[in-house]
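Re: the 314-residue chain
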Amino acid sequence: MRKLVLLALVGLGAQLVDGSLGMAYGVTSTTLLLAIGTNPAAASATVHLAEIGTTLASGASHWKFGNVDWKVVTRIGIPGAIGAFAGATFLSNLDTSVAAPVMSLILLALGVYVLARFTVKGIRRDRLGQPLRRRFLAPLGLVAGFVDATGGGGWGPVGTPAILASGRLEPRKVIGSIDTSEFLVSVAASAGFLLALGSAGIDTAWVVALLVGGLIAAPIAAWLVRHIPPRVLGSAVGGVIVLTNSRTLLRSDWIDASDSTRTLVYLVLAAVWAGAVAWSVRAYRGELALERELADLEAELATDDARKGAAEPA
């Protein structure tokens, strides 16, 4: 019972992050399932089955708050579903001893990307309103869907930063569209896993626990997307993913590091993570201060113009 409550809380927290950042539900949830010894393919299948419900609820919530661009959803979601089905089939046929470190390596790379992306880079705004073309979205969806199924997460970490970096869609609509299109990816990945694995290794109670937590968080996250600073949250989540999957890799047969080596690596990673979060907080405060200064300057200019207009003779 305690494990189910924990999984529900993980589902809730992961969906809060995913609905606010447009990423990290699958990466966060799969990382936890791997940490407690779940078979890699079964872990990814469990998460994707839960995501069918959470992404549907999240998409409906984002649609309600006006955060969805339906052209983007269809242009990236359908290729994403194809890639996810292929990825699920590929992972299901990998030997477990190989699949675990492979998945952790993918998750680690995604974690590093999330951490670096939100710590170092801001969001471009000079291209807002320009159309996102199919020739960009279709390959992106195919790759993101494949990575999502094989890594137990990756749709958001691959898709969201790529569209944000284009600067052609406002952040809230990027997040809403990625979350909504993920429903197609989750359905396709789940179908691939069920066809390849059947129900072997998939605990229905775990699926339900993750789903319940995610359903509770989905509408809250859709509302919070306008209020939580993505830069800070992205740095925090990226650090968790990097630390957890580094632990899995250091204990794997590939590396089998000694206790002292593992401790040293954990301390270094923790220090880097703390520094990244502190940097993100400082950068976010700087951005807020700059916005206030610009707003004050605009207000002063408007006041001066009004005074000049009033002083001129009729």
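DSSP finds eleven helices and no strands in the chain.
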